[in-house]
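**Reference record**
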Amino acid sequence: MSVRKIASKLGLSPSTVSLALRSSPKISADTRERVLQEAEGLGYKPNAKLNELMSHLRLNGSGPTVACFGVISFYDTLRPWEGSRHLTAVYEAMRSRGEALGYRLESLGLKAPGMNAARFSSVLDTRGIQGLLCFGSPNFEEEFPKELDHYAVVTIGLSISTPLHRVTSHFFNDLYRTLERLHAMGYRRPGLLLNEYEEGRTAHSYPSAYLGWCEHALGNASLMPILRTAEVSAEPTLEWVLSNRPDVIVCVHHRREVEKLQKILEGNGMEVPRDVGIAAVTQLLDGTRFSGMQQNQRLMGEWAVELLVSRIMNQDLGIPTNPRIEMVESEWIEGETLLRRQWR
């Protein structure tokens, strides 16, 4: 039983029937229900092979790129990635993967002066944009506007509290793998120096991984307090180091703060890595001498686009009941701030 036969039976166009069978929001609930009941009664089953072929043709056709994804954020600037090497790398991966799949990206000012959610929705509808790639918010409790709940949205990171499909670094696993590697290298007293803002943005993943790993691998007697700071400064850092004597410091901070940590240690007679090692867990380590975990921006950008394309192809629009979270593991960078030690 074909789509055309169902359309003829109900006096509808084949395109209307096709959209109804894919639960498109462009079709009224009554019409969709009529089509689904008729299809069920006639024993209609979609041709999965044909759908696969049509998806391939849509995404890989030789024609010009005409489909568009909007790129938005809750930052006060139109293109927040222009001020961040990390976000630039994510954006470039999005743009490249989008072009390969037949989509161009257009930056849209959700926070532009005079803009509100209703007006923004009108802009999207006028331009025929169904899919949005979101770079998150500086406020990790931000909620996505209800007026925009009928679009397909994929966001980066955990900073928006509304349940959305999202791609993020695997923060818990990144720290756990770092500790495992340090243990294999001979370190036995790892200390965690943690940025307070990053702890909030990552749903407390880092202290959870640290405390869980230490208890499992070293036992409660070896636990030391976590040093939480907004920035790395000399007095609290030295007090913590001298009180707890870590043999390696796992530093979850921006790399400029990791650089400050090394200067503080070496300015007070502790040579890195001879006396104490440093393992950074941060967004970018390329171009530094630090060992540690660096986020994989390329995969984050590519996976976000692929997830959004999948939603569009399936007409999976709106705020999801069961959001999908895809976690990207970071990459280990071999630097000069760690030694292989003999356990004593």
